[in-house]
Amino acid sequence: MKPMTPATDRPTFRGPAAQALQDSIQAAAATDHHVLLLGDAGTGKRHLARHLHACSRRGPFLAVDCSAHDAVSLGIGLHGHEAGAVRGGFAATPGWFEAALDGTVFLDEVHALSLDVQQDLLSVMRSGQVRRVGGRHATPVNVRLVCATSQDLAQAVAEGRFLADLLRLVSTVTLAMPALRDRPDDILPLARSLLQDQSRHLKQAVPGFSACAEQALLRHTWPGHLRELEAVLHRALLRAPAGVIRAEDLMLPVGDDGASAAHTGAATPASPDEALLADLDALLGRMGERFEGRLFEVVERSLFSHAHRRCGQHQIQAARLLGVSRNVLRGRLIALGEIDARK
């Protein structure tokens, strides 16, 4: 969770709805108000948060995926810690607000915060100061919070899962990210921009789109939003011949108009296994940038925790799902702090 400078992945704003959103971003960026970003998973709220920060004059930008860490890790991340104050914390480490002093802290999937961490966050924001775990003195902090969620926080408040006071604090300005299917004028410019970024990361020449490929991109309804578009383009780059991406390289499903793959010029889609692996490869590519230096740690924790939860905390079933022994699973869950060693 280190500070990051604004990325080059700026959103594309062409259509009327997107232009209105851009105007709202510019207005919000000129203030110090906290901002809440709403939108389905995959619509590009992280890109929007970075763009909002880039439009401001604030200092560092620090992003935290609240759904990727347990409550203990998030609590330590919020406050930071002195040397030796936490397990494995041999060096003093600043918390989010110290690291992003005078900048922006982006809390992605903020609804995933536990009530205890929400209360800690609210206290820090109200007091304007934070004290490290094991520390004696509080440090003044000044940050803008940009929070993102794919859930209805008002409903979460009603159900007792989110603090009403915290919702009021973070939603001073609320912006809704429209679905990609509602931004048809943005699809091709956005695809070209993403293609340039992905080609650069893969260290290869930037291809163009054939006319059929462009039509396929426009015809698709994008239920997975921007995240799906990124995965489709990454997959196409791995398949496409030099110079051009064809409709068949996109491997999109048959359109709603009922046209067959033969009529659209598309090849038979990849098998479900191939498509899933390509999506995983694209996801790991994005995670490698976001979790530089600790990608294995994040993926390992997510993998073992997901299997354990999916199997209802039944260790034998979780081990069978992962293809490892129960002893290996139990050892990793203990090391990751997911279960007590006595269980």
From TrEMBL:
SMART domains: AAA. This is Regulatory Fis family protein. It holds the Pfam family AAA_lid_14. Transmembrane segments: none annotated. InterPro entries: AAA+_ATPase, AAA_lid_NorR, Homeodomain-like_sf, P-loop_NTPase, Sigma_54_int. One of its GO terms (biological process) is regulation of DNA-templated transcription. CDD domains: AAA. GO terms for molecular function: ATP binding; DNA binding. PANTHER family: TRANSCRIPTIONAL REGULATORY PROTEIN (PTHR32071), TRANSCRIPTIONAL REGULATORY PROTEIN FLGR (PTHR32071:SF21). Keywords: ATP-binding, DNA-binding, Nucleotide-binding, Transcription, Transcription regulation. SUPFAM superfamilies: Homeodomain-like, P-loop containing nucleoside triphosphate hydrolases. Residues 14-238 form the Sigma-54 factor interaction domain. It comes from Aquabacterium commune.
